[in-house]
Design goal:
mainly alpha; 0% strand
Length: 126
């Protein structure tokens, strides 16, 4: 079961890295929308639309960066068999079930691995 826990930690790290990359890309889009706000005359509809777009991109970037950072941290902690990482990874496993199709597969795998009795003893020994 230790092999499955290490694979799960690696998968969490990969998913975290992908979300961090997506967050950085959306952050760059937000900066582009903010540049459009500066070039638009005040009061124009295009300036308002660019401002709303920048706000939306900023919100999505923060969410993606946080989600990726938490997944990457949980993945590293899983590979080190830290006791708190099992609980955090279980919570993220349940939340990942909504991210069809890859998050669903990862969530099912996380629940299968971390709810196993051998995995429980592995994290108790650490």
């Amino acid at each position: 079961m230790q092999k499955h826990v290490n694979i799960l930690g690696l998968l969490y790290g990969v998913l975290g890295g992908l979300f961090l990359l997506a967050g950085a890309i959306v952050l760059a889009l937000m900066l582009g929308a903010m540049a459009l706000v500066q070039y638009a005359d005040s009061g124009e509809v295009s300036g308002v639309a660019a401002g709303l777009t920048a706000a939306m991109f900023g919100t999505l970037a923060v969410i993606a960066l946080a989600w990726g950072g938490f997944h990457a941290a949980a993945g590293m902690a899983l590979r080190r068999h830290q006791p708190w990482s099992r609980t955090v990874a279980l919570v993220f496993g349940v939340l990942d079930l909504a991210l069809v199709p890859f998050g669903t597969a990862l969530g099912i795998y996380a629940l299968w691995v971390l709810l196993n009795d051998e995995a429980r003893t592995l994290f108790r020994q650490a």
